[in-house]
Each structure stands twice: as structure tokens, then as C-alpha cells.
Amino acid sequence: RDVPEFPHGFEWGAATAAYQVEGASAARGRSIWDGFCAQPGRVKDGGSGEVACDFYHRYPEDVGLMARLGLSGFRFSLSWPRIQPGGTGAPDPAGLDFYDRLVDSLLGAGIAPLPTLYHFDLPQELEDAGGWLERDTAERFADYTRIALDRLGDRVPRWITLNEPFVHMAYGYAFGVHAPGRALLLDALPAAHHQLLAHARAAAVLRAGGAEALLANNCTPVVPASDSPDDVAAAAAYDNLHNRLFLDPVLLGRPPDLSAYGASVPEFPGEDLAAIEGSADGLGVNYYNPTLVAAPGPGDGLPFALPDYAAHVEGTPVTGFGWPVVPDGLPDLLARLRDRYGAALPPLRITENGCSYPDRPDAGGAFTDRERIAYLDGHLRALAAAIADGADVRGYYTWSLIDNFEWAEGYTQRFGLVHVDFATQRRTPRASFHWYRDWIRAAAR
Ligand code: GCO
């Protein structure tokens, strides 16, 4: 099989997140997603993470699937309210025990655990006190990090602090389509400042314990809809928000440039910037697609508009979710990161990349997901080319190992290499599972 070359020791992985897979919600504290899902109309099919994939109980079976795949790494997240039910104070031993068992089970299968400390599921009590709009949440996050590190740090040398802080701020606090469902527009920006601070505080804790601290963000190459100055300016404004809001402070110690957004942007105190600068030992890049940006229309409240990429760029296929499939966007993105951050850019890992498509099971009940195979093949070949070109990428974690709760889309979008029947919890590997296993085998040869 012709598989391009990847660096020695390259991490072959898959990813999940606590709220999306664990279930067992009665065994932990409440998170903002519990309350959000209970509000009618928030989640497409009325679903929630109450049971999800029941990973909390079925992780041994799922680790078995990972072993069959030949994964060398598994990215998952810890549920903060499972470890500290209200987000402060003494840990719940049952929660810590669960992650302890999971880590041992992964290590026993030869799979390196890559935990993310926070993937959108803030303890509800902290949200009631202001959530990420409050500076204190960053200090509480540092306490929680210490608890997790104390328990798992002897076996886990590398951690991701926050997942997609941009998406959390934008969807959760600015537009209200994710929990906590607040639609504050630009008044959501303190949620960026405090997540940056939380990352820095957690990184200090992890480093003091001899561990590495990574930050995972959703990154997108921004494409202006035309070369008109207005479209180009709108694209720059969007790039500053989506890609640079978190990376400029962390990598360059520079406050985000939000000049296009007007006066409501909060200041970053100098001592915060000093703590934030250089606080990442590595970056997780979650890449799904490029973003087309045009000048805003008359009634638009923000300095950009986001027209449909696939409708604009002829011949672009889309996933079942309607997302454009652009493998070349990945090397493009990696090249832009190198251009902008140069020597300040730490090692990278692709911590998410994947697609959802509706299933068309054949007569025998098999899931032959040719589109997912084409998606993965295209992105992995593009990644290999970027690495050959000098990008320092150490691993690839596809989203996702198994179908799971897709936030506001509920269970309507399936991203898994493994199909999950949510009525029975039966797992059925799709064709892409076997394809990825063969790819890993060939690449590791
Ligand atoms: C994230 C992502 C995942 C999604 C995936 C597909 O924040 O890391 O939102 O949780 O499930 O990106 O949309």
C-alpha cells in the first residue's frame, strides 16, 4: 500500500471528549451542558450527554477497539465536574478513580494517553458565579489542574489545557448556540482573556510537575471572497479573531489585535500577558476546513460576513454536515502558522480532523463509508506533504473514534470510525476503521 513517509515516532491517534462520550451523568456534578441540553430547542434532536456512548462503563471495550486500530495515542478529556463536582474544593474520589483506570487501561494497551483538561463542560456552579466571564474561573482551573496532575502525572507526561477556547467563547458566550447559551457578542471577549489566563496558570502547574502543557485550538485558513480591499480587510479582521486571538498572546506575548472590532474590547494587563507568553510547549491544531470571508453587509453587527465556501469555490465537495472538504487547507494553514510565528511556533499535533456523513448500511448491515476514507486519505497525504516541507507535526488524532454527542446537533452528526447504535450501545467498526488500521500499519512499518 502506498503510504507516504511520516517521522519516526509519529503519534497515530483518535480523539473524543468527556461530555460527548462518557454518559454516567448522575455520577458527577452538573456541567453547563446538562442545563443547556434540558432547555427545549437548544439541541436539534433533543439529545444530551446523559448516556452518550456510556464510555464511562464501556471504556474497556473501546480501548480494545483502539488496540485493534493500532493507535499509539488517544486524546480524551477529563470532566471537571466529575473530578470537582462544583468546580472547587475537595475532589470526588470516584471521578479520579475513573480516569486512573482509563489511563492504566490505555497504557496496558500500549496507547499513550493525551488528556485535555477542559472540553466545554464547565461545572454549573462556576457558571452561576459568572463562568469564563469571571477572572476567578482561571484560578479555579489551576486548582483543578493540580488535582488531576497529582493523581495522573506519574503516568501522563503531556496534557492539553483547553480545547478550542475560540469556539467556546464564540459559540458559548457570543452567539449562544452552545452552553452556556449566552449571546453577548463582543461582550463575550472577557471569556477569551480568562481562558488565556487559565491556560497560563494550568501550564505553570503542569510544568512545575515536570509535564508538558499544550493548547488546542480550532484553526482555519481564512480566504477573502475576492481581492477587493473590503473583502481583504474583513478577512484580516476574521483571522485576528478566529486564529490570532489565542495564538498571538501565547506565542508572541502580544495582545490580540481587535482594532476592527471597536472600543468594547477589554485590555490585557501587562502582568497577564507576561504569564501567557510562551506558556505552550506545543499546539494542538483542530482542522476541519478553510473559511471564506467577505465584507459585512449593511445590517451586520460584526466587521465580516461568512459566505458559503463550497458555493463560492467551484467543485468543492461537502460533508454530511455541509462542511467543505479541502485537504489542501491543512498544509496552507500549517504554512501560515510558520510564516506568522516562526521560531516561536512550538511542535504541532493535529488534535482533530474528521468528518460526518449519513450512513448507508449495505444489505449485510456493514457501514462502507467511502467518503470518510477519501476524506482521511486526502488529509493525511496533504499532512505528509506539509511535514516533508518542514512542518513540525508530531501526531494526528482523528475526530472521532466513535460516533458521539455532537453538541447542538445532538446525535444527528456521526463522526466515528466506529458506528454506535445508541439504542443498544452496540459498536460496529466502519470501513474507515479498517482503512485507518491498515494506514497506521503501513506508515509505522
Ligand atoms: C471541539 C469540537 C468537537 C466536535 C468536532 C466535530 O470542540 O473540539 O467541537 O468536540 O465534536 O469538532 O464538530
UniProtKB/TrEMBL annotation:
Substrate binds at Q20, H119, N163, Y288, W399, E406, W407. InterPro entries: GH, GH_1_N_CS, Glyco_hydro_1, Glyco_hydro_1_beta-glucosidase. It comes from the Bacteria. Gene3D superfamilies: Glycosidases. One of its GO terms (biological process) is cellulose catabolic process. The keyword Secreted does not apply. One of its GO terms (cellular component) is cytosol. The active site is at E164, E352. It holds the Pfam family Glyco_hydro_1. It is an enzyme of class 3 (hydrolase). It catalyses: Hydrolysis of terminal, non-reducing beta-D-glucosyl residues with release of beta-D-glucose. Its EC number is 3.2.1.21. One of its GO terms (molecular function) is beta-glucosidase activity. Keywords: Carbohydrate metabolism, Cellulose degradation, Glycosidase, Hydrolase, Polysaccharide degradation. Belongs to the glycosyl hydrolase 1 family. This is Beta-glucosidase. It comes from Murinocardiopsis flavida. The lineage of its organism: Bacteria, Bacillati, Actinomycetota, Actinomycetes, Streptosporangiales.
